[in-house]
Amino acid sequence: MQFSATVTTVTREQIVPKVYDTILKGNVGLLRLLGNAKTWGSGYRMDIPIKYQKSTVGGLVGLGGTLDTDRSVTRVKMQFEPKRRHKPVVIDDIERQLNKGDEQVLMLLAVEMDSVAEDLLDDAGSDLYGGNGSGDQFDSIENAADDATNYSTYGSLARATYTSLNGYLSTAIATLALSDLSTAWNSTKVGADKPSLALADVTSWTAYEGLLQPTVKAGYDANGFPQVTRTGQIPSQRALGGEIGFDSIFYRGTPIVEDEKCPSGEMKVLNERYFNFYGIDIDEYEKINISADNIDGPQSVPNPRGFNWSGLIRSAAQPAEVGHLYVIGNYVGTDPRRSGSLEGITG
Fold first, then answer.
1. Mean pLDDT of the 305-331 span
2. In terms of DSSP bridges, do strands 233-234 and 227-228 run parallel, antiparallel, or are they unpaired?
3. Could you say which of 145, 225, 282, 295 has the lowest number of CB atoms within 10 Å?
4. Which candidate, 230, 224, 228, places its Cα nearest to that of 302?
5. Taking residues 10-18, what's their average pLDDT?
6. CA-CA distances (angstroms) from residue 162 to 76, 158, 334?
7. What are phi and psi of 103, to 5 degrees?
8. What is the pLDDT of residues 213-263, one digit of tens each?
9. More confidently predicted of 145 and 307
10. Angle, nearest 10°, between helix axes 28-35 and 108-130?
11. Which helix (H) or strand (E) holds 84?
12. Residue 96 has pLDDT above 90, yes or no
């Protein structure tokens, strides 16, 4: 409807006091990792000693026999370097001044910081699935869960030499079957230490849902899906008490969650004891919470490690104040064989 100047000259618009995101996607994997991040500490590099082979010396010895006194080298160090991603927050002097008084509907700085934080976390979620660790790139789930098909090294070590660094990778699965999942779980568990979380895109998640027995699926429809939160699992939607989690379906007791950042047609199998985000907090920077709206629902992540705000400083190049939001640290898999990737799922 086109209003005339009779109305528009004496009536202003109604601005809804909230900015709605219409572009960014869900980011469950990043939520879990940031919410349970570990501290990098000090040191320009993180060296992780690993045992890559069994000792081949020693053995049975009879009466009067000779003892084997050779030494067998069984350990080597993986190496990871810290990475950094940033987003600038720029507030022009005139814009800040005009955003005051009775005409202010939303505070410019607060809205801009929330918006930029969302964008930074969206990029960080992409890093989680796509980095190869070289140069300024973060390491990633893709890198950890590879068997040298796409990433020949991990933690600076050649997988051809250190084959124990191979994750589980299965490509071109096409129609998902329970046997695909059982092979992945069997390949990534060690003893009773099994995968703790699987992240899937919508196609893969729906494909597994379709494999569930009709009675089980009917139970989900009636009672709600169990929920995965930042810190753990909740048995059913009714138990949430107002806290929103993410729908999960289970395989061998492991929750499978839909993550919209997960590459199309893929499912990532993780043991979260051995794959973490190690964050670096800069002493001179400010620590701020990631608010509820920044990560898919009302679960804020209080002062996550590695999430830094520089504060605003006067720009020398423009009439504005400029600050930077950072994610600093790296995604580290201390035992890549406990990570898996199922790819090429079509339904």
1. 91
2. antiparallel
3. 282
4. 230
5. 65
6. 9, 6, 14
7. -85, -5
8. 665 555 555 455 555 555 555 555 443 333 344 577 889 889 898 899 999
9. 145
10. 100
11. strand 83-92
12. no
Phi first, then psi, for residue 279 (nearest 5°) are -100, 150
Using DSSP, state whether 286 is helix, strand or coil.
strand
β-bridge mates for residue 83, sequence order:
329
CA atoms of 135 and 163, how far apart (whole Å): 24
What pLDDT digit, counting tens, does each position of 115-170 carry? 888 889 889 999 999 989 999 999 999 999 999 999 999 999 999 999 999 999 99
Residue 298 reports pLDDT greater than 60: no
pLDDT for residue 36: 87
Determine the pLDDT at residue 241: 35
Strand partners, 233: 228
Q: Which of 244, 36, 30 is nearest to 122 (CA)?
A: 30
pTM here is 0.84
Q: Environment class of residue 89 by beta-carbon count within 10 Å: exposed (0-12), middle (13-18) or buried (19+)? A: buried
Q: What is the DSSP letter of 101?
A: G
CA 83 to CA 141: how far, in whole Å? 15
Per DSSP, the chain holds a count of helices (H) and strands (E) of: 8, 18
Give the closest residue to 265 by CA, choosing from 341, 186, 153, 159: 341
Q: Rounded to 5 degrees, what angle do the CA atoms 4, 9, 10 make? A: 115
- The answer to whether 83 and 140 have CB atoms below 8 angstroms apart is no
